Amino acid sequence: MAMIQQTSPGATATETPAAKTLRGRLRISEKLVEGGIWLAGIISIVVLLGVFFLLLKEGLPTFTHTSPGEFFFGDKWYPISEPPRFGTLPFLVSTLMVTIISTVIAVPIGIGCAAYLSEVAPPKVRETLKPIIELLAGFPSVVMGLIGLLLISPAVQSMFNLNTGLCGLTASIMLAFMSLPVIVSVSEDALSVVPDEFRQASYALGTTKWETIWHVCIPAALSGIAAAVMLGVGRAIGETMTVLMVAGGALAVPISPADPMTPMTAAIASGIGNAVRGGLQYQALFAIGLVLFIMTLIVNLFADRVLEREKRKFARV
Amino acid sequence: MTSRFRHSALIMAVLLMAILVTAGCSSAPTTGGANELSGSIKIIGSNTVTPLATVWAEDFMKVQPKVSIAVSGPGSGPGIAALIDSTADICQASRAITAKEIDQAKAKGVNPYEIQVASDGLSVVVHPSNPISDITIAQLSGIYTGKITNWKEVGGKDASIVALSRDTNSGTHVFFKEHVVQMAVLPTADKKLEYGPKVLMLPSTEEGVSETAKNPNAIFYPGLGYVSDKVKVLGIKKTANDSAILPSVKTVLDGTYPVSRPLLFYTNGAPTGASKAFVDYCLSSEGQKRVIEVGYVPLAQK
User: Fold this and answer.
1) Residue A287 CB coordination number (10 Å)
2) Residues 6 or more apart from B176 whose CB is under 8 A from it?
3) Domains and CATH numbers, chain B
4) What is the DSSP annotation of B168-183?
5) Could you tell me what percentage of chain B is helix, strand and coil, using 3-state DSSP and rounding each to the nearest 5?
6) For A132-185, what is the HEC assignment?
7) Largest CB tally within 10 Å, which of A58, A209, B186, B296?
């Protein structure tokens, strides 16, 4: 120790053995960290592929006892009857209906909120509001389900004079709340990277703030906003607990959003508990899971594409 | 930076080891001294039986503080599945195990052992403002298959019926389908009848009762233990000519209430150790007293 202290002032020119081992150690830890990161990256890919193959392995045998036509277009789901029927059309239609309506509700509010935060709000307000909105994304879905059950469903029932408030519309409203944080956060990011020159040029032409937001900022950030919407849609498609609690759970193909319905996620969640491993119902539920996985994969890939294009666009500017 | 990282990694590893080791220590039921029992009992199954099993478990853990009992109620189906997969010590069920499930259990070396712990009168409830006070089984079948859609068809006001049901996990769902929807007790029994597609399949009994309490057009069928004064219980007529019977301890015990059923425990073989002591407590006169307090029907005194 004492020797190192003595030699340390002149150590910059000629390396001492101690410094060498230190460098060596650094190199080893560097390697370790690199390896760790590589492993983490590989693990997530392996898990994704594993899930996909599991879904294929458990789900595809469904088509040995139910024809694809019956599975996709049949409207009778009686998994525990003799003989069982596995028509999933009601679930597919419910999922599409609930997702589309929640998107229609969430997108204008989400973009409006993002435009306010990015273009109008003073920096202090933005800095306080944005983390709070992002915090909303972490709300447990079972809590959202309870809120839907206790507050939104009676309100929807009396507002639209329905037979029951447990319906697709209530589920859509809850899903809109749940996808809002993602839409707001990602859209706001997209709007805030629109170069300031764009705004200045617009103002120089004598436009108002509203015209600048509507005709300049939002179009410039459009691909980012589109990605935000796609991510919101992905969230809405995959959400389970909330729709299980408030969508009503009827097995008919829904005609209107005010009908009680069972989206695909709710059908899987409510059926998997008593499905015996490897049984017919088990396979059919996995097949629904496979369809759902492919749907969310397509939405996410699409969002990724759009986001990528966004990045390249502003790399040029 | 690196040394700090390595430090925290070390701490994490040690913590992880500690957690794993302690997790591995949770022991199977073992008998300690003469009366001191220890171990853990996992009870999974019927949502209907859950309130009762919870009360029993709390009582039992007061007497035997070293025994820990966990009760969860996803439904009879998942409970029996858990028994077959040996992830539950006791399965609580509101329907009997099926021949198919027994075969599956035997294939995995599990030998289901049935113990009746109480009885239940499956109650049909509506909103308190609903004017009707009784209903026949054939009418109920009509409502749940979707043939009857308006309350005026069964003597009520002109409003469409919101039929609530439990989902397919539920033993109550299966029992109600066999005994009411398919009218097993009547000469008109038809095994082909199914719940209509407009019936709402709910994930829990609580949700059904709370929706019925809020919705003037709803009808639901909870176990007796879930009935509260926020909903109105209907008298059940076996046929239009019979008199309406309300579910109660008396009418279930003497067999006059048409839709009563046993509440069951299933274990892998006859229960032993802590599980046996728990089941014995449930069947004791003290345990059976609690059955009435929770709202179900105790076993007939022998």
Assistant:
1) 24
2) B122, B144, B165, B221, B259
3) 39-120+261-294 (3.40.190.10), 125-246 (3.40.190.10)
4) TT-HHHHHHIIIIIS-
5) 40, 20, 40
6) HHHHHCCCCHHHHHHHHHHHHHHHHHHHCCCCCCCCHHHHHHHHHHHHHHHHHH
7) B296
Overall pTM > 0.90:
no
Residue of A203, A230, A209 whose CA lies nearest to A295: A230
Write down how long chain B is: 302
**What is the interface pTM, i.e. ipTM, of the complex?**
0.72
Q: How far is Cα B135 from Cα B239, in angstroms, rounded to an integer?
A: 9
d(CA B61, CA B56) in angstroms, rounded, equals: 9
The angle that helices B2-25 and A17-59 make with each other, rounded to 10 degrees, is 40
Nearest to A286 by CA among A275, A297, A298, A295: A275
Q: Specify the amino acid at residue B196.
A: G
What's the mean pLDDT when you consider all of chain A?
Answer: 87
Which residues of chain B fall short of a pLDDT of 70?
Answer: 1-35, 301-302
The per-residue pLDDT for range B29-38, each reduced to its tens digit, is 444 444 677 8
Measured CA to CA, the distance from residue A259 to residue B198 in angstroms comes to 9
The B residues from 190 to 229 touching A (CB cutoff 8 Å) are 194-203, 207, 210-211, 214-215, 217-218
What is the Cα A214 distance to its own chain's centre? Answer: 26
Residues 6+ apart with CB under 8 A from B251: B121, B245, B257, B260
Contact between chains at A251 and B104 (C-beta distance less than 8 A): no
Q: Residue A23 and residue B210: Cα distance in Å, rounded?
A: 68
Nearest CB partner across the interface for B218, out of A26, A164, A276: A164
Token pair 């509260």 in the structure block, residue: B228
Phi-psi region of A12 (alpha: psi -120 to 50; beta: other; left: phi over 0): alpha
| Tens of pLDDT, residues A78-114 | 887 778 889 999 999 999 999 999 999 999 999 999 9
Provide the 3-class DSSP secondary structure of residue B279.
Answer: helix
C-alpha dist (Å) from residue B278 to A242, B48, B49, B60, B84: 36, 19, 15, 7, 21
Query: Residue A146: closest CA among chain B residues belongs to which residue?
Result: B207
> Structural domain boundaries of chain A?
68-316
β-strand B134-136 against B260-268: which pairing, if any?
A: unpaired
Which chain A positions have a beta carbon within 8 Å of B2's beta carbon? 25-26, 29
CATH fold of A68-316 reads MetI-like fold (1.10.3720)
Considering only the beta carbons, identify the residue of A33, A271, A276 that sits closest to B168: A271
